[in-house]
Amino acid sequence: MTNFPTLTWPEADGPQSARWRSEAAVPPAKRVVIADDRTTADAAYRLACEGTALLWRGDFQNARQLLQAMTRRLERKPRKQVGETPLDAFNLHRQAQSQRARTLGMLLIPLEGDYTIPLRRAPNVQQACEEVYGPAGQEPSVVSLRELLGLIGAHEWRKKGVEIPVLQERIHPYYGVFSPVRGEYVDLVARTPLPSVEKAFDIGVGTGVLSAVLAKRGVKRIVATDQDPRALACAKENLTRLGYDSQVELIAADLFPEGRAPLVVCNPPWVPARPASPIENAVYDYESRMLLGFLNGLGAHLSPGGEGWLILSDFAEHLGMRTRDWLLAAIDNAGLIVAGREDIKPRHPKAADADDPLHAARAAEVTSLWRLKAKRAATKP
C-alpha cells in the first residue's frame, strides 16, 4: 500500500490501516473514530466539523440516513451574507461548497478488495467502483460515503444516458467527464452552417457529443483530442455505439492534433477559476489556460479560409472574472477575427431559481459560438 495514501484508525488490538480512495484528491483524515448505529447525528456532525472522520461499522442504510441528518444540520447554519459584487457571491458560494464537501466527506465506508461493502444491508457497488477505480481484486480500502454515493449516481447516469434531441440518441457520460446535460451548446453546433464537410478537429472531446453531432451532419473525417484517458474511453464507447467510430479518430493530446482542418471546434471550461479537485477540471479553466491555448494555436491549425468554433458562456463575465474586452483582445492578439457569432440562452433550472446565490449571473448568461478566422487568410483577395 506504500504507493497509495493510507488511512489509519485505532482498534482494540492496535492501529489499523487501509488504502484511502478519493477521486477528489482529498488527503486522508488524521483523526479517525469508529462509528456505528449508536452514533447520534449531533455527535457525528460535531466530530466532522472538528475534522475527525467516522469509520462506519453499522448498518449501511443507517449510514445513509446519518449523512442526510448531517446535511440537514449543515443547511441550518445561517448563510454568510452575499458579497457586494457577483464575484464576492461566487467566492462565498465556492467556500460554502468546499466546507460542505469537507464536512460531509468525514463519514467513511470500508470496501473489500472485490469492492463489496462489509456492512449490513449494503448495496452491490462492484460495477460502479470498477468503472472508476479499475478492476477488482485489490487490497481493502476506505472511501467517503459521499464519494461512494456519487459513484453510484454516476453509474446510473452512465447506464441511463443523457438524451440529445439533435442526435435523437443518448450520450452515456463516465464519472468525471463533463456531461452534456446543458444541451444549448450542442444546439449551437447543430445549427451553425458548416464551412466544410471534409474534415474537422474536436478539441477536448469529452463524452464525444460534439464529434457525434458533426458526424451526423455529414463531416467525413473528425480528429478528436483529449488528455484525459477516461474521456477518451467514454468518447470511444459513445461514438462506437452511435455508429460514428469510422468517421472519428480519437487521439490523446493536449489541445491540437497535427495538421490543419477547415473546421476546429472547442468547448473549453467556462469559468477561469482554480479547480478544487481533479474532477473539477471539466468545469474550471484556471487562468483561462485552455481558452488561451486554443486561441493562440488555432491559426496554425486552420486550413486557408477555415473556421474555428469557440463555444463559450459569458457567465464569467457576469461574475466579473473576465470582461468582453479581454476576450476580444485575446482573439485579436492570437491573429484571429470574429466572422460571426451564434447565441443561445440557457435552459437549465438554475437560471430560473431566484434562491440560487448566483441567480443574477445565471439569469443574464448567454452561451455563444464564436466563428473565428485567421486574419491573414481572411484578408486574402
Automatic annotation (TrEMBL):
<dbReference type="GO" id="GO:0032259">
    <property type="term" value="P:methylation"/>
</dbReference>
<feature type="domain" description="Methyltransferase small">
    <location>
        <begin position="197"/>
        <end position="273"/>
    </location>
</feature>
<dbReference type="InterPro" id="IPR007848">
    <property type="entry name" value="Small_mtfrase_dom"/>
</dbReference>
<keyword id="KW-0949">S-adenosyl-L-methionine</keyword>
<dbReference type="InterPro" id="IPR050320">
    <property type="entry name" value="N5-glutamine_MTase"/>
</dbReference>
<dbReference type="InterPro" id="IPR002052">
    <property type="entry name" value="DNA_methylase_N6_adenine_CS"/>
</dbReference>
<keyword id="KW-0489">Methyltransferase</keyword>
<dbReference type="InterPro" id="IPR029063">
    <property type="entry name" value="SAM-dependent_MTases_sf"/>
</dbReference>
<dbReference type="GO" id="GO:0003676">
    <property type="term" value="F:nucleic acid binding"/>
</dbReference>
<keyword id="KW-0808">Transferase</keyword>
<dbReference type="Pfam" id="PF05175">
    <property type="entry name" value="MTS"/>
</dbReference>
<protein>
    <submittedName>
        <fullName>Methylase</fullName>
    </submittedName>
</protein>
<dbReference type="GO" id="GO:0036009">
    <property type="term" value="F:protein-glutamine N-methyltransferase activity"/>
</dbReference>
